[in-house]
Design a protein that fits this description.
Chain B: Its main location: membrane. Chain B: It is found in: Cell membrane. Chain B: Pfam families: BPD_transp_2. The complex is a heterodimer of chains A (293) and B (343). In chain A, β9 and β10 form a beta hairpin. Chain A is an alpha/beta fold. Chain A has a single domain, classed as P-loop containing nucleotide triphosphate hydrolases (Rossmann fold). Classes of the chains: A alpha/beta (293), B mainly alpha (343). Chains A and B meet through α3, α4, α5 and α6 of A and α7, α8, α9 and α10 of B.
């Protein structure tokens, strides 16, 4: 648990640094600080607001995810769930607020830096590389582990060969783990939807992330497929020990998988707590369960 | 460019089986052709075919694999040719191959600069911005006669093709020289496409946001694609100038040439190394066959101008027919035919 200790210190440092937010990022009225887990928070968002032109996608979102937990983000369509995920992994830069991961301030530093810090993700509309086979997609998930340069790779020098072999072994393990072995050499675009979702999960896991973001991993799946994928996510957590933040509409899956639920509506956080607490929250019932179910 | 599904892993065959046709082709190209070919075959067909194939391989890395459309290929060819010429001219005792490599490096540097817009522009907009390279390079080479060692119209003459004391200054020599250079660089390009960097080219082409979410630097990948592609295209330009034309002026590397190489890549098949050779074969060799055939069959009835134009119409029609039959190019067509024969 040495890691956790040092991260606390780093988080504290990053929070202190944040006092010097440039004026153009500061909002007119300073918001009250959102609840922050003082214990083992891996991911902390503070006062995140995001707008596209005049449309507010997120208003003052703050929450923290503990190391090792599964946090579900739920809410009606258009509530800002995907935008929130895109802020976390640096695809969107929020107009205000901060994203702290392992004590690092990742706000607006781009997807690549988020990946380097240990965040991997899947996408709502599958974003696989159609020109690559299943196994090559997964191998690409290990891009960050490659150090060999252009000439080493072209000439097949030892380091390049070793890295390639390692990436391939890891991909084969993941294919096996997610029962994709039979499809290793298939073109990824030719696979059925459910399998593509699983390949995307394998690609994200190949990076060995500390935090895995899943954007509707089970959308459009049958009950059986959902069960399979839920099991796979739980097994992956048990095996790799990462923290998961997922967006999901199926409330049964959410209750089953998550330790912590965040409810968004119209870009605002309306509930944040354990599954039991959220389920009984009258605002949630009104905004989400009451409206949709 | 996001929906390309073109790389074709061979299924069910051992690795050596896929390489057998290439090994056979190389054996014939090195072991048979030099002994049976005549001067016309080498000078008018095979050498330009090889140089344009190599340019196609280079552009395919950029456009087919990395998804960045370029209309500046001829400019990078010109940079490769004129830079090699100057390095060899101005550095006493510089070996020819070192001159070619330095020409390639210069083309890579210029490619890098003209690749910068790709960081903000995509698709057609990027293609239009690469026209800047096309016009700028041609203008600079014509305007400043230093590049052509004081020749007022920018014409340069090939240095002697001598490597390690062996002269390649004959028809068959120029063919063998081109063949060696093209084979080596094609092998390097093929290795690249199968490496982690090659996969990151495809990743950036297919889904740049997903690629950066995996930690791939989209910026670095695009610039690397421009540099590597321009290096190969530059060396192809030097071959075009030194082994094929032997005297060349900047106008020989005009926009038409850029289009020709882009068509080679598209007709041959995007994201396919062999596609560049099939495309170049179609573009270079097919019109020659057609014009000979036309001359032989109809030469008595029509005058040569009419035949020349008719031949262009036929080639154009065939391009359309091919691309309707197989939008993924000749490479995919060949893959489909061989698979059918194997089954």
């Amino acid at each position: 648990m040495m890691m956790v200790m040092s991260e606390q210190i780093a988080t504290a440092w990053a929070l202190e640094q944040a006092g010097v937010t440039p004026a153009f990022l500061r909002r007119e009225e300073e918001e009250a600080a959102p609840p922050v887990y003082r214990g083992d928070a891996l991911l902390v968002l503070q006062g995140v607001s995001l707008a596209f032109g005049g449309v507010r996608a997120l208003s003052d979102i703050g929450f923290a995810a503990r190391e090792g937990e599964t946090l579900a983000i739920i809410g009606p369509n258009g509530a800002g769930k995907s935008s929130l995920l895109n802020v976390i992994n640096g695809i969107y830069r929020p107009q205000s607020g901060r994203v702290l991961f392992r004590g690092l301030d990742l706000t607006g530093r781009g997807a690549r830096n988020a990946a380097r810090a240990g965040i991997a993700r899947t996408f709502q509309n599958i974003a696989l590389f159609k020109g690559l086979s299943v196994i090559d997609n997964i191998v690409t998930g290990r891009s960050l582990a490659h150090r060999a340069g252009l000439f080493e790779q072209i000439l097949g020098l030892p380091r390049a060969r070793r890295e390639e072999a390692e990436a391939r072994e890891e991909a084969l393990r993941l294919l096996d783990f997610l029962q994709l072995g039979a499809f290793a050499e298939r073109q990824v675009g030719a696979l059925p939807y459910g399998l593509q979702k699983r390949v995307e999960l394998a690609r994200a896991l190949a990076a060995r992330p500390r935090l895995l973001l899943l954007d509707e991993p089970m959308a459009g799946m049958s009950a059986g497929e959902k069960q399979d994928l839920s099991d796979a996510i739980l097994a992956a957590k048990a095996r790799f020990g990462m923290t998961v933040v997922l967006i999901e509409h199926d409330i049964g899956v959410v209750m089953n998988l998550s330790d912590h639920i965040l409810v968004l509506d119209y870009g605002q956080k309306i509930a944040d707590g354990t599954p039991d607490a959220v389920r009984d929250d009258p605002r949630v019932i009104e905004a989400y369960l009451g409206a949709g179910h | 460019m996001t929906d390309l599904t073109l790389s074709q892993p061979r299924q069910g065959l051992p690795a050596w089986a896929g390489r057998l046709p290439v090994a056979l082709l190389l054996a014939v190209a090195f072991g048979v052709v030099p002994f049976v070919g005549d001067q016309y075959l080498f000078d008018a067909i095979l050498v330009p075919f090889l140089a344009l194939s190599l340019a196609g391989v280079g552009l395919n890395l950029l456009t087919g694999y990395a998804g960045q459309v370029s209309l500046g290929s001829a400019a990078f060819m010109a940079v490769g040719a004129f830079a090699s010429y100057n390095f060899i001219l101005r550095i006493e005792g510089l070996p020819l191959l070192a001159g070619l490599a330095l020409g390639g490096v210069t083309a890579a540097a210029v490619g890098l600069v003209f690749g910068l817009p790709s960081l903000r522009l995509k698709g057609f907009y990027l293609a239009v911005s690469t026209l800047a390279a096309q016009f700028f390079v041609q203008w600079a080479l014509t305007k400043f006669d230093w590049f052509s060692n004081g020749n007022a119209s920018g014409v340069i003459t090939a240095p002697p093709l001598t490597v390690l004391g062996i002269s390649f200054d004959s028809s068959v020599g120029r063919y063998l020289f081109s063949l060696i250079v093209v084979a080596l660089l094609t092998l390097a390009a093929w290795r690249l496409t199968r490496s982690e960097i090659g996969r990151s080219f495809i990743a950036v082409r297919d889904r740049d946001v997903a690629a950066s979410s995996l930690g791939i630097s989209v910026l670095r990948v695009k610039l690397l694609a421009f540099a590597v592609s321009s290096f190969i295209v530059g060396v192809a330009g030097a071959l075009w100038a030194f082994a094929y034309l032997r005297t060349v002026e900047p106008a020989g590397f005009d926009l038409d040439r850029s289009f020709q190489i882009l068509f080679i890549v598209i007709i041959g098949g995007l994201a396919s190394i062999r596609g560049a050779f099939l495309g170049a074969g179609f573009i270079v060799i097919f019109p020659l066959i057609l014009s000979r055939l036309g001359q032989a069959l109809l030469g008595d009835t029509f005058d040569s101008g009419v035949l020349e134009n008719a031949q262009k119409i036929v080639v154009g029609g065939l391009i359309i027919a091919f691309l309707i039959a197989e939008p993924a190019g000749l490479s995919a067509l060949v893959a489909r035919l061989t698979r059918r024969n194997l089954n």
